[in-house]
Amino acid sequence: MIPPIASRFVAAETATESLDHVAKLNRDGIGGILNLLGEHYETQAAAEEDVSAYLDLITQIGTTELKACISVKPSQIGLDAGDDVFTANLGRIIDHADEHDVFVWVDMEDRTTTDVTLDAYTKFATQYDGDVGLCIQANLKRTAEDLPRLADVPGKVRLVKGAYDEPSAVAYKQKAHVNQAYKQYLEYMFEHFDGGIAVGSHDPEMIEYAKDLHEVHGTDFEIQMLMGVREDAQRELAQAGYEVNQYIPYGDKWMSYFYRRIRERKENLVFAARAVLTA
Ligand code: FAD
Fold first, then answer.
1. 18, 53, 57, 209: which could form a disulfide with 250 (CB 3.0–4.6 Å)?
2. 265 is catalytic
Protein backbone atom coordinates (compact mmCIF):
# COMPACT_ATOMS: atom_id res chain seq x y z
CA MET A 1 0.00 0.00 0.00
CA ILE A 2 1.17 3.54 -0.74
CA PRO A 3 1.60 5.31 2.64
CA PRO A 4 -0.60 8.41 3.18
CA ILE A 5 2.46 10.69 2.92
CA ALA A 6 3.01 9.71 -0.73
CA SER A 7 -0.55 8.95 -1.78
CA ARG A 8 -1.14 12.47 -3.07
CA PHE A 9 1.37 11.87 -5.86
CA VAL A 10 1.26 8.11 -6.48
CA ALA A 11 -2.06 6.36 -7.17
CA ALA A 12 -1.42 2.84 -5.91
CA GLU A 13 0.96 -0.07 -6.06
CA THR A 14 -1.14 -2.06 -8.50
CA ALA A 15 -2.55 -1.37 -11.94
CA THR A 16 -6.06 -2.40 -10.88
CA GLU A 17 -6.19 0.14 -8.03
CA SER A 18 -4.70 2.81 -10.30
CA LEU A 19 -7.51 2.22 -12.77
CA ASP A 20 -9.96 2.92 -9.90
CA HIS A 21 -8.25 6.32 -9.61
CA VAL A 22 -8.71 6.83 -13.37
CA ALA A 23 -12.41 5.96 -13.06
CA LYS A 24 -12.85 8.71 -10.42
CA LEU A 25 -10.98 11.20 -12.65
CA ASN A 26 -13.09 10.25 -15.65
CA ARG A 27 -16.21 11.18 -13.66
CA ASP A 28 -14.76 14.73 -13.45
CA GLY A 29 -14.09 14.72 -17.19
CA ILE A 30 -10.32 14.12 -16.79
CA GLY A 31 -8.42 11.37 -18.59
CA GLY A 32 -5.62 9.27 -17.06
CA ILE A 33 -2.07 8.72 -18.33
CA LEU A 34 -0.66 5.77 -16.41
CA ASN A 35 3.06 5.47 -15.73
CA LEU A 36 4.51 2.46 -13.94
CA LEU A 37 7.31 3.85 -11.78
CA GLY A 38 10.74 2.52 -12.72
CA GLU A 39 13.79 3.64 -14.67
CA HIS A 40 17.39 2.85 -15.55
CA TYR A 41 17.26 -0.91 -15.71
CA GLU A 42 20.62 -2.11 -16.92
CA THR A 43 19.62 -5.59 -17.99
CA GLN A 44 17.21 -6.80 -20.57
CA ALA A 45 15.60 -9.08 -17.96
CA ALA A 46 14.84 -6.20 -15.58
CA ALA A 47 13.37 -4.13 -18.42
CA GLU A 48 11.30 -7.12 -19.52
CA GLU A 49 9.42 -7.13 -16.20
CA ASP A 50 8.14 -3.61 -16.83
CA VAL A 51 7.48 -4.26 -20.52
CA SER A 52 5.29 -7.20 -19.61
CA ALA A 53 3.58 -5.15 -16.87
CA TYR A 54 2.75 -2.53 -19.52
CA LEU A 55 1.44 -5.21 -21.90
CA ASP A 56 -0.85 -6.47 -19.13
CA LEU A 57 -1.95 -2.92 -18.29
CA ILE A 58 -2.84 -2.28 -21.94
CA THR A 59 -4.92 -5.46 -22.06
CA GLN A 60 -6.64 -4.40 -18.84
CA ILE A 61 -7.38 -0.87 -20.12
CA GLY A 62 -8.68 -2.43 -23.33
CA THR A 63 -11.35 -4.34 -21.40
CA THR A 64 -12.73 -1.14 -19.86
CA GLU A 65 -14.48 1.95 -21.18
CA LEU A 66 -12.04 4.18 -19.30
CA LYS A 67 -10.40 7.21 -20.85
CA ALA A 68 -6.89 6.03 -20.12
CA CYS A 69 -3.55 5.77 -21.89
CA ILE A 70 0.03 5.03 -20.86
CA SER A 71 3.36 6.84 -20.74
CA VAL A 72 6.64 4.91 -20.73
CA LYS A 73 10.21 5.92 -19.92
CA PRO A 74 12.88 4.75 -22.41
CA SER A 75 15.31 3.60 -19.67
CA GLN A 76 12.50 1.61 -18.09
CA ILE A 77 12.02 -0.50 -21.19
CA GLY A 78 15.64 -1.26 -21.97
CA LEU A 79 17.51 1.85 -23.17
CA ASP A 80 20.38 1.29 -20.72
CA ALA A 81 20.71 -2.27 -22.06
CA GLY A 82 20.98 -1.00 -25.65
CA ASP A 83 19.26 1.27 -28.17
CA ASP A 84 18.00 -1.78 -30.06
CA VAL A 85 16.51 -3.31 -26.90
CA PHE A 86 14.58 -0.08 -26.21
CA THR A 87 13.35 0.29 -29.78
CA ALA A 88 12.24 -3.34 -30.01
CA ASN A 89 10.41 -3.15 -26.66
CA LEU A 90 8.72 0.13 -27.54
CA GLY A 91 7.58 -1.49 -30.78
CA ARG A 92 6.06 -4.42 -28.85
CA ILE A 93 4.21 -2.07 -26.50
CA ILE A 94 2.88 0.12 -29.31
CA ASP A 95 1.83 -2.87 -31.38
CA HIS A 96 -0.13 -4.34 -28.45
CA ALA A 97 -1.60 -0.91 -27.64
CA ASP A 98 -2.69 -0.54 -31.25
CA GLU A 99 -4.61 -3.83 -31.00
CA HIS A 100 -6.41 -2.60 -27.88
CA ASP A 101 -6.87 1.00 -29.01
CA VAL A 102 -4.72 2.46 -26.23
CA PHE A 103 -2.58 5.54 -26.86
CA VAL A 104 1.14 5.38 -25.91
CA TRP A 105 3.19 8.39 -24.78
CA VAL A 106 6.98 8.24 -24.63
CA ASP A 107 8.57 10.29 -21.83
CA MET A 108 11.84 12.12 -22.50
CA GLU A 109 14.83 11.52 -20.25
CA ASP A 110 18.18 13.33 -20.17
CA ARG A 111 19.93 14.83 -23.23
CA THR A 112 21.97 11.68 -23.94
CA THR A 113 18.73 9.90 -24.83
CA THR A 114 17.10 12.54 -27.05
CA ASP A 115 18.26 11.26 -30.46
CA VAL A 116 17.35 7.62 -29.96
CA THR A 117 14.00 8.56 -28.42
CA LEU A 118 13.15 10.93 -31.30
CA ASP A 119 14.14 8.28 -33.85
CA ALA A 120 12.02 5.57 -32.22
CA TYR A 121 9.05 7.93 -31.93
CA THR A 122 9.35 8.99 -35.58
CA LYS A 123 9.51 5.37 -36.72
CA PHE A 124 6.49 4.18 -34.74
CA ALA A 125 4.31 7.29 -35.03
CA THR A 126 4.68 6.98 -38.80
CA GLN A 127 4.10 3.21 -38.79
CA TYR A 128 1.04 3.42 -36.51
CA ASP A 129 -0.34 6.55 -38.13
CA GLY A 130 -0.10 8.95 -35.23
CA ASP A 131 -1.23 6.80 -32.28
CA VAL A 132 1.94 7.64 -30.37
CA GLY A 133 3.07 10.73 -28.49
CA LEU A 134 6.45 12.12 -27.53
CA CYS A 135 7.58 14.45 -24.76
CA ILE A 136 10.01 17.25 -25.65
CA GLN A 137 11.76 19.68 -23.32
CA ALA A 138 11.75 23.49 -23.51
CA ASN A 139 14.99 23.82 -21.54
CA LEU A 140 16.95 22.07 -24.33
CA LYS A 141 18.24 24.48 -26.98
CA ARG A 142 18.10 21.74 -29.63
CA THR A 143 14.30 21.62 -29.35
CA ALA A 144 14.20 24.62 -31.74
CA GLU A 145 15.68 22.36 -34.43
CA ASP A 146 13.75 19.23 -33.43
CA LEU A 147 10.36 20.92 -33.78
CA PRO A 148 10.34 21.33 -37.60
CA ARG A 149 11.27 17.64 -37.92
CA LEU A 150 8.45 16.67 -35.53
CA ALA A 151 5.91 18.81 -37.39
CA ASP A 152 6.07 16.28 -40.27
CA VAL A 153 5.44 13.26 -38.03
CA PRO A 154 1.79 12.17 -37.53
CA GLY A 155 1.75 11.91 -33.72
CA LYS A 156 1.14 14.04 -30.63
CA VAL A 157 3.80 16.09 -28.88
CA ARG A 158 3.84 17.04 -25.19
CA LEU A 159 5.90 20.13 -24.37
CA VAL A 160 7.34 20.28 -20.82
CA LYS A 161 9.87 22.62 -19.24
CA GLY A 162 12.33 19.76 -18.63
CA ALA A 163 13.10 17.90 -15.42
CA TYR A 164 16.79 17.10 -15.92
CA ASP A 165 19.74 19.22 -14.84
CA GLU A 166 21.57 19.75 -18.14
CA PRO A 167 24.79 21.72 -18.86
CA SER A 168 24.50 25.32 -20.09
CA ALA A 169 26.10 24.40 -23.42
CA VAL A 170 22.91 22.58 -24.38
CA ALA A 171 20.23 23.94 -22.05
CA TYR A 172 18.71 27.15 -20.72
CA LYS A 173 19.41 27.28 -17.01
CA GLN A 174 17.43 30.29 -15.82
CA LYS A 175 13.71 29.93 -15.20
CA ALA A 176 12.96 33.07 -17.24
CA HIS A 177 14.85 31.70 -20.24
CA VAL A 178 13.11 28.33 -20.02
CA ASN A 179 9.73 30.10 -19.83
CA GLN A 180 10.59 32.24 -22.84
CA ALA A 181 11.65 29.14 -24.81
CA TYR A 182 8.48 27.33 -23.71
CA LYS A 183 6.31 30.10 -25.16
CA GLN A 184 8.36 30.32 -28.34
CA TYR A 185 8.13 26.53 -28.91
CA LEU A 186 4.41 26.55 -28.13
CA GLU A 187 3.92 29.25 -30.75
CA TYR A 188 5.69 27.11 -33.32
CA MET A 189 3.60 24.08 -32.40
CA PHE A 190 0.28 25.91 -32.63
CA GLU A 191 1.31 27.26 -36.04
CA HIS A 192 2.72 24.06 -37.55
CA PHE A 193 1.38 20.95 -35.74
CA ASP A 194 -1.93 19.38 -36.59
CA GLY A 195 -1.47 15.95 -34.99
CA GLY A 196 -2.03 17.10 -31.43
CA ILE A 197 -0.35 19.29 -28.84
CA ALA A 198 -0.11 18.60 -25.12
CA VAL A 199 0.78 21.41 -22.75
CA GLY A 200 2.57 19.48 -19.98
CA SER A 201 2.78 22.19 -17.34
CA HIS A 202 1.21 23.41 -14.09
CA ASP A 203 2.22 26.97 -14.86
CA PRO A 204 -0.89 29.21 -15.16
CA GLU A 205 1.08 31.55 -17.45
CA MET A 206 1.87 28.78 -19.95
CA ILE A 207 -1.70 27.50 -19.88
CA GLU A 208 -3.12 30.97 -20.52
CA TYR A 209 -0.61 31.38 -23.35
CA ALA A 210 -1.77 28.11 -24.91
CA LYS A 211 -5.43 29.19 -24.63
CA ASP A 212 -4.57 32.45 -26.43
CA LEU A 213 -2.69 30.59 -29.18
CA HIS A 214 -5.70 28.31 -29.61
CA GLU A 215 -7.92 31.35 -30.11
CA VAL A 216 -5.58 32.68 -32.80
CA HIS A 217 -4.72 29.46 -34.67
CA GLY A 218 -7.62 27.15 -33.80
CA THR A 219 -5.22 24.22 -33.25
CA ASP A 220 -6.48 21.56 -30.82
CA PHE A 221 -4.54 21.04 -27.62
CA GLU A 222 -4.78 19.20 -24.34
CA ILE A 223 -3.45 20.07 -20.91
CA GLN A 224 -1.50 17.49 -18.94
CA MET A 225 -0.65 17.80 -15.26
CA LEU A 226 0.73 15.45 -12.64
CA MET A 227 -1.38 13.67 -10.07
CA GLY A 228 -1.36 15.68 -6.83
CA VAL A 229 -0.44 18.99 -8.43
CA ARG A 230 -3.06 21.75 -8.95
CA GLU A 231 -5.88 19.22 -9.00
CA ASP A 232 -8.49 21.98 -8.45
CA ALA A 233 -7.19 23.69 -11.59
CA GLN A 234 -7.37 20.36 -13.46
CA ARG A 235 -11.05 20.02 -12.56
CA GLU A 236 -11.83 23.68 -13.37
CA LEU A 237 -10.15 23.43 -16.77
CA ALA A 238 -12.02 20.22 -17.57
CA GLN A 239 -15.29 21.84 -16.48
CA ALA A 240 -14.54 24.81 -18.74
CA GLY A 241 -14.37 22.39 -21.67
CA TYR A 242 -10.60 21.95 -22.08
CA GLU A 243 -9.19 18.47 -22.59
CA VAL A 244 -7.30 17.60 -19.42
CA ASN A 245 -5.29 14.46 -18.78
CA GLN A 246 -3.61 13.58 -15.52
CA TYR A 247 -0.25 11.80 -15.45
CA ILE A 248 -0.60 9.08 -12.83
CA PRO A 249 2.45 7.29 -11.45
CA TYR A 250 1.87 3.92 -9.81
CA GLY A 251 3.83 0.89 -8.65
CA ASP A 252 6.01 -0.14 -5.73
CA LYS A 253 8.98 2.10 -6.65
CA TRP A 254 7.20 5.20 -5.33
CA MET A 255 9.87 6.38 -2.89
CA SER A 256 12.27 8.18 -5.24
CA TYR A 257 9.41 9.73 -7.26
CA PHE A 258 7.86 11.06 -4.06
CA TYR A 259 11.16 12.64 -2.92
CA ARG A 260 11.60 14.25 -6.36
CA ARG A 261 8.22 16.00 -5.96
CA ILE A 262 9.24 17.21 -2.48
CA ARG A 263 12.66 18.48 -3.65
CA GLU A 264 11.03 20.28 -6.57
CA ARG A 265 8.66 22.30 -4.40
CA LYS A 266 8.76 22.60 -0.61
CA GLU A 267 4.99 23.26 -0.38
CA ASN A 268 4.50 19.67 -1.53
CA LEU A 269 5.86 18.55 1.83
CA VAL A 270 3.10 20.51 3.57
CA PHE A 271 0.46 18.82 1.38
CA ALA A 272 2.01 15.43 2.09
CA ALA A 273 2.16 16.06 5.84
CA ARG A 274 -1.48 17.20 5.78
CA ALA A 275 -2.41 13.93 4.09
CA VAL A 276 -0.80 12.02 6.97
CA LEU A 277 -2.65 14.07 9.58
CA THR A 278 -6.01 13.63 7.91
CA ALA A 279 -5.53 9.93 7.04
P1 FAD B 1 7.24 25.26 -12.79
O2 FAD B 1 8.21 26.23 -13.39
O3 FAD B 1 7.74 24.18 -11.90
O4 FAD B 1 6.15 26.06 -11.99
C5 FAD B 1 5.56 27.21 -12.58
C6 FAD B 1 4.32 27.60 -11.84
O7 FAD B 1 3.35 26.54 -11.87
C8 FAD B 1 4.54 27.90 -10.39
O9 FAD B 1 5.05 29.20 -10.18
C10 FAD B 1 3.12 27.72 -9.85
O11 FAD B 1 2.32 28.83 -10.17
C12 FAD B 1 2.63 26.52 -10.63
N13 FAD B 1 2.93 25.27 -9.91
C14 FAD B 1 3.91 24.39 -10.16
N15 FAD B 1 3.87 23.37 -9.27
C16 FAD B 1 2.85 23.64 -8.42
C17 FAD B 1 2.32 23.00 -7.27
N18 FAD B 1 2.82 21.84 -6.77
N19 FAD B 1 1.26 23.56 -6.65
C20 FAD B 1 0.73 24.73 -7.08
N21 FAD B 1 1.21 25.40 -8.17
C22 FAD B 1 2.25 24.86 -8.82
N23 FAD B 1 9.90 16.27 -17.67
C24 FAD B 1 10.80 15.65 -18.47
O25 FAD B 1 11.97 16.04 -18.52
N26 FAD B 1 10.42 14.56 -19.23
C27 FAD B 1 9.14 14.12 -19.26
O28 FAD B 1 8.84 13.15 -19.96
C29 FAD B 1 8.18 14.80 -18.48
N30 FAD B 1 6.88 14.44 -18.51
C31 FAD B 1 5.95 15.21 -17.85
C32 FAD B 1 4.60 14.93 -18.01
C33 FAD B 1 3.65 15.76 -17.43
C34 FAD B 1 2.20 15.47 -17.63
C35 FAD B 1 4.06 16.90 -16.64
C36 FAD B 1 3.06 17.84 -16.00
C37 FAD B 1 5.39 17.15 -16.45
C38 FAD B 1 6.36 16.32 -17.04
N39 FAD B 1 7.71 16.57 -16.89
C40 FAD B 1 8.62 15.90 -17.66
C41 FAD B 1 8.18 17.52 -15.83
C42 FAD B 1 8.42 18.92 -16.37
O43 FAD B 1 9.57 18.92 -17.19
C44 FAD B 1 8.63 19.92 -15.21
O45 FAD B 1 9.75 19.56 -14.47
C46 FAD B 1 7.46 20.03 -14.27
O47 FAD B 1 6.23 19.95 -14.93
C48 FAD B 1 7.49 21.39 -13.55
O49 FAD B 1 7.35 22.46 -14.46
P50 FAD B 1 6.01 23.32 -14.62
O51 FAD B 1 5.80 23.56 -16.07
O52 FAD B 1 4.90 22.67 -13.95
O53 FAD B 1 6.36 24.74 -14.01
1. 18
2. no
